[in-house]
Amino acid sequence: MAGSEAAWQAANMGVPVVIHEMRPKTGTFAHRTGDLAEMVCSNSLRSDDDEQNAVGLLHWEMRAADGLIMAMADRHRLPAGGALAVDRDAFARDVTQALRDHPLVTIEPGEINDLPAEGHWIIATGPLTSEGLGQAIARETGREALAFFDAIAPIVYFDSIDLSKAWMQSRYDKGETEAERTAYLNCPMDRDTYEAFIDALLAADKTEFHEGETAGYFDGCLPIEVMAERGRETLRHGPMKPVGLTNPHQPETKAHAIVQLRRDNALGTLYNIVGFQTKMKYGAQTEVLRMIPGLENARFARLGGIHRNTFINSPRLLDAQMRLRARPHIRFAGQITGVEGYVESAAMGLLAGRLAAAEILGRDLPPPPQDSAMGALIHHITGGAEAKTFQPMNVNFGLFRPVEGLKGGRRGRRDRYKAYTDRAKSAWRDWLGETADLIPS
């Protein structure tokens, strides 16, 4: 995500770009293709609400900056209520093709295992930095690179789901069209079924960690077993919450918990289980997941899994231009910088691409305004966060400077969020206007 967006932005500023991609020659645990911007954990870019949600605001800013990731996401959008979900295969294929077609972009296959000694570079290795490059980064940074574990959710074939038990509905019927209002497939559980499911989940065989590894999970992508271990009701108040949904098969009966699935491709043949990242072993997964009403005979296009994810201590290692302080010809972008999520990763790629291109062109690109979503996020990772306790961060309104005179607390939240997004859009428009002369017409 980040590397693709960085290349697109730099090339559109007139700078020739070479993308080095090790796949498909050298694969990873999670990727299936050699396409750029392949989505592995989920097919969702989360909320598209640019007035009340910080992620939606990032969408807006990237669209305003002619971002490639958002353009391709809009082209391959799938119904998902208020979220932006995409047909992941078509999305990655068209991102790759757009970059191949760009006259200033070259894609070179092959793995890079060392930090380059000269030139202008952006390291945007996504959630799975290769072992060789990871070791090179660790050597350069004094082994200050940190690690946590990320999990991916299973994908189910739609024709194996029992629709006499499941039904189609978005939470609170959210969406402007019928397709949006019926974007999710829902599987209800009564109390006894839920309790039995939790028992099986806790008892299931799990992936074990290698010696020396620690399970430092990112809270936004916790495996369901880890959530269940925090309390039997945790899942029922998280990905299995039953609110805003009515079972048409039993409209008078309120479900104790509900598992949701979201369409994963344009054909509607694949559905992923929302929020069900897991570290259960494959055999245990099929047994436990088939306890879910409607999934008793489910066939899986992909089972869930867990992988190591490396990120650097950006507040200590990077300057405000996203350059490695020890080697300023190298920039970092994306998840390796300590942002979490596809959108945040792509946004940091957008900034890194523009900053690198401006430097190559001999121009001073002012930093993005802190009141914008991108500015708040880059400020956090390059200095706003405490280096000693730095952990991966999603964009959120807690990173924004307060707007004076607004009511705090939950009651004032809607007005406060609207004020944040209005201020951010104005600041972002001004910044794009100031830097427009850097973009060739």
Second CATH tier, the architecture of the largest domain: 3-Layer(bba) Sandwich
**Which consecutive residue ranges, at least 5 long each, have pLDDT under 50?**
none
CATH class of the largest domain: Alpha Beta
Rounded mean pLDDT score = 90
What's the order of the H and E elements?
Answer: HEEHHEEHEEHEEEHEHHEEHEEHEEHHH
Instruction: Report the portion of residues in β strands.
Output: 15-25%
Whole-angstrom Rg: 22 Å
Tally of extended strands? 16
SS-derived structural category: alpha+beta
Distance between the ends: 25 Å
How many domains make up the 3D coordinates? Answer: 2
CATH superfamily of the largest domain: FAD/NAD(P)-binding domain
Strand arrangement in the largest pleated sheet: 9-10-11-12-8-13
- Major beta sheet summary: 6 strands, antiparallel
Write down the overall geometry. globular
* Total of helices: 13
| Helix content percent band | 25-40%
EC number: 2.1.1.74
Pfam family, one: GIDA
Family: Belongs to the MnmG family. TrmFO subfamily.
Protein name: Methylenetetrahydrofolate--tRNA-(uracil-5-)-methyltransferase TrmFO
What does this molecule look like?
With 441 residues, the chain is α+β, with helices and mostly antiparallel strands. The protein has 2 domains: 2-145 and 312-438, FAD/NAD(P)-binding domain (3-Layer(bba) Sandwich), CATH 3.50.50.60; 152-308, Elongation Factor Tu (Ef-tu), domain 3. It contains 13 helices and 16 strands. It has helices spanning 2-12, 54-64, 68-75, 88-101, 131-140, 178-181, 191-203, 224-229, 282-289, 314-317, 342-360, 373-384, 413-435, and strands at 17-21, 44-47, 77-78, 83-86, 105-109, 121-123, 146-152, 155-157, 167-168, 184-189, 257-263, 270-273, 300-302, 305-311, 323-324, 327-332. Strands 9-10-11-12-8-13 form a 6-stranded antiparallel sheet. A hairpin with a 2-residue loop joins strand 15 (323-324) and strand 16. The protein is globular and about 65 Å long. One of its GO terms (cellular component) is cytosol. Catalyzes the folate-dependent formation of 5-methyl-uridine at position 54 (M-5-U54) in all tRNAs. It is found in: Cytoplasm. Keywords: Cytoplasm, FAD, Flavoprotein, Methyltransferase, NAD, NADP, Transferase, tRNA processing. Residues 2-363 form the MnmG N-terminal domain.
